[in-house]
């Protein structure tokens, strides 16, 4: 992805602003997803074919993780090391979601669509954050 496309997606030519926007969007989506899992773990579990207890636990984790990502997004210059942890965490989440789909879960049709869709979304956040971090450090 070129710097021009990154700038267009972030609607800013300032790499730190782009990074903060991608972190903020990640935080909102992650926290929202976590809140939905916590509040509706039973019906979502039935819809997706995933256990209610697992969704509840994942929901709590996602709310906490999303809050941490939001804290990073609120910083004028997010520190590189924690941002890298978020990026790597997002890549790991995406990969583990797909592995779980094949190895552990027996999802419904909705779950078989949702799990890869959310994995792709999370991986996309990681790519955008990684590119913005790289642009901010002057490496292309």
Question: What does the average pLDDT come to?
Answer: 90
How many β-strands, per DSSP? 0
Main sheet properties: none
Our measurement of the CA-to-CA distance between the termini, rounded to an integer number of angstroms, reads: 10 Å
Q: Note the total helix count.
A: 6
What is the percentage of strand-forming residues? under 5%
Low-confidence stretches: 1-7
Helix fraction by DSSP (H/I, runs of at least 4): over 70%
The chain-level structural class is: mainly alpha
Q: Using only CA atoms, what is the Rg?
A: 16 Å
Order of helices and strands: HHHHHH
Overall geometry: elongated
Give an overview in words.
- With 140 residues, this protein is mostly helical.
- The chain has six helices and no strands.
- Helix 2 (15-39) runs antiparallel to helix 4, helix 2 packs antiparallel against helix 6 and helix 3 crosses helix 4.
- The chain is elongated.
- The chain starts with a helix and ends with a helix.
- 31% of the residues are buried.
What's a concise summary of this model?
This protein has 140 residues and is mainly α. Helix content is 83%, strand content 0%.
